[in-house]
Design a protein that fits this description.
heterodimer, A: 498 residues, Serine Threonine Protein Phosphatase 5, Tetratricopeptide repeat, 2 strands, B: alpha/beta, D-Maltodextrin-Binding Protein, domain 2, 22% strand
Chain lengths: 498, 149
């Protein structure tokens, strides 16, 4: 027998009726019928929501979902959720496949959700969109549907739509959805709305550290560094083991320009939390290494990044190794040295250990993009053209957003170098998530006299507060010249009178 | 803390408030046998030079207000006009062109009107309509006509 649950705001399952009857009668206002024979699995699903969405204890949520599908291996929707929550690329793909393989056991609504994500995984974007809109039209108030749509649309950089899904849902009491939507508002730089949701999130879960941690991160995105640190400390006061907040403090000092203090805080984190998940460790080691780039101390940066690359190599994490060398290439003042690091990145990718094919392709696109830029910088047009052709081929054979953006960034840089500013603009506008492209876009707008556009993108770039390497390479210098157009650095072209 | 996935390691940063490329889909009713049009044919349809389909059915055009910021690209490419000019043109040809208040309205009209053709944001698509290729390209393909800023 197949059952469905309709949940009220209390999140308690209150009725059990056959799925087909429920779905057939009034799907417009109903919950997505969840198909499992096990009451325990239903309880675990609620636990997974609380852990994954409300508290963002992702590792624990993954364990709960793994338990649920062990109890009910035919729980197709559980496989789908695990594929989306997992931090392990191999598990993501495996669970997506299991969701599709077990979809015959699922309700029609669940099948639509599974088809949507399967199409997305297969890079069939139009069917994925139509599946999503079908699910949303049938279950606009279901929390799982709202979460998945918000999550997927945000990945697609469709922020306005992601927010609209939440606002139309009428769900006002879900801490997890408040958290997700606040981030979406922050990506749109609508910080007042993001802060308002954060206030509600903190009030809803006053004894949990994540609301304070999220509030801190969004304050930092808005440039309110001191307040961000206060909220990170509040999170640690609630739960001293909430390592994200310790590293959040370090990231914030890095953005403030206090690199010594930032490194001190990273080290506290690494000492205190010795058993960090591997990918989180890599992330914060990379940010610590980036503090040297912020100080223009490239020798120390090289040493720190080499340690990460060596560790990744020893642990056969090919993509991480490649990405580390790619980042090293980006900040190198000497283009020939950059090209040597990119050779190492490509060699690591050829090993392809412990990485899914799509991830290798995405990384390869990033590496090729960096190679085009390094070739242009070294004046080697032949290499730039040949590399761009490789990247174009990769992009033509895929509709992967990361690969496509990498191609547009590289093509825009090549056209800019040829003084073909109009052509450069149309490519660079397709890669707006990368500060390197934004910087060129500002300059291209200026060259063709698009003052208003240049000013708007300049403001965005100057107010970018993300602890990434690209931010470290571009934004501090850009910001300096944005405020003082008489500065004499390489960023002079980007300077604008306010 | 936000939810985190491995691929984010290389997807860098989300920056939204800058302009992002728009992708429009050209849609027709599911009974329409046409599957592909050229960009030149499309411009002729929207500018009123082509008023019937190959099977003789009259063309009915529908889109959101071309003078709105979101539709600027569509106005420029489909009418070869500014947004305001395109709106004035549409009003002067209201027998053939309808201005809708939302993508949902466009889709509803196209799905229920034989001979209708409309333009919607890619992410508004539903199964009620079919997507026409333009110059043999779907909206997700590189070099698609109705894509850009």
């Amino acid at each position: 027998m197949v059952w469905t649950c309709i949940r009220k705001a209390s999140l308690i399952a209150i009725c059990l009726v056959p799925v087909i009857a429920a779905a057939g009668k009034n799907p417009q206002n109903g919950a997505l019928p969840i198909t499992t024979k096990s009451r325990q699995v239903r309880q675990l699903l609620d636990d997974a929501w609380r852990l994954n969405l409300d508290q963002v204890q992702q590792a624990e949520a993954i364990e709960v979902l793994q338990k649920a599908i062990k109890i009910d291996p035919n729980f197709a929707f559980g496989h789908l959720l695990l594929s989306q929550c997992s931090l392990d690329p191999a598990e993501q793909v495996r669970e997506q496949q299991k969701a599709f393989a077990t979809r015959a056991h699922a309700s029609s609504g669940e099948r639509m959700v599974i088809d949507w994500f399967q199409n997305a995984a297969d890079h069939k974007l139009i069917p994925a969109i139509t599946d999503m809109n079908e699910v949303l039209s049938r279950y606009p108030h279901d929390r799982w549907v709202v979460f998945l749509a918000n999550w997927w649309l945000t990945q697609q950089t469709q922020y306005e739509r992601a927010v609209a899904v939440f606002e139309r849902s009428g769900i006002t009491d879900s801490p997890g959805l408040m958290n997700n939507t606040a981030y979406t508002y922050a990506y749109m730089r609508q910080f007042d709305r993001a802060f308002a949701l954060m206030e509600k999130y903190v009030a809803a879960l006053p004894k949990d550290p994540n609301p304070q941690d999220s509030y801190a991160e969004i304050l930092r995105m808005a440039g309110h560094y001191d307040q961000a640190i206060q909220h990170y400390r509040a999170a640690l006061a609630i739960d001293p083991q909430f390592y994200s907040s310790q590293f959040g403090i370090a990231d914030t000092y890095a953005l403030m320009g206090d690199e010594k203090r930032a490194r001190h805080e990273y080290q506290i984190g690494f000492r205190k939390f010795a058993s960090l998940p591997e990918l989180h460790r890599v992330q914060w080691q990379t940010r610590e290494a980036t503090t040297f780039v912020r100080e223009d101390d490239y020798a120390s940066a090289d040493q720190a990044f080499e340690v990460i690359a060596d560790q990744a190599h020893a642990k056969a994490m090919s993509q991480v190794e490649a990405d580390t060398y790619r980042q090293m290439a980006i900040y190198q003042p000497d283009a020939k040295q950059a090209l040597r690091f990119l050779d190492k990145a490509e060699a690591a990718l050829r090993q392809g250990k412990n990485a899914m094919p799509f991830a290798i392709q995405q990384e390869m696109a990033q590496v090729l993009r960096a190679r085009v830029e390094a070739a242009l910088k070294s004046g080697n047009r032949k290499m730039a053209t040949a590399t761009l052709a490789r990247l174009a081929m990769l992009s033509r054979n895929s509709d992967d957003k990361v690969i496509e953006s990498a191609y547009h960034g590289a093509a825009g840089a090549a056209l800019f170098a040829d003084h073909k500013y109009n052509g450069a603009m149309s490519h660079l506008e397709e890669d707006i998530n990368n500060p390197l492209s934004l910087q060129l876009l500002v300059a291209a707008y200026q060259k063709v006299g698009y003052g208003a556009e240049a000013k708007r993108v300049s403001e965005t770039l100057a107010s970018l507060n993300d602890p990434s390497l690209e931010q470290a390479v571009v934004v501090p210098g850009f910001r300096k010249c944005y405020q003082d157009p008489s500065c004499g650095s390489a960023f002079k072209d980007a300077a604008l009178k306010k | 803390m936000r939810l985190w996935r491995f691929w984010l390691l290389i997807s860098i940063i989300a920056l939204a408030s800058t302009a992002y490329a728009r992708q429009f889909a050209v849609i027709a009713d599911t009974n329409n046998s046409v599957i592909s049009v050229t960009s030149a044919e499309l411009v002729k349809i929207f500018s009123g030079h082509t008023r019937s389909w190959p099977d003789g059915r009259p063309v009915k055009v529908i889109l959101r207000d071309p003078s709105s910021a979101e539709m600027e690209l569509a106005a420029r490419k489909l009418f070869n006009m500014s947004g305001d000019q395109a709106r004035a043109f549409a009003r002067a040809h209201s027998d053939m062109i309808t201005i809708a208040d939302s993508d949902d309205t466009v889709i509803r009209f196209v799905s229920t009107t034989r001979g209708a053709i409309g333009v919607v944001d890619l992410y508004s698509l539903t199964k009620d309509v079919h997507v026409l290729k333009v110059d043999d390209k779907l909206p997700v393909e590189q070099g698609y006509f109705l894509r850009g800023n």
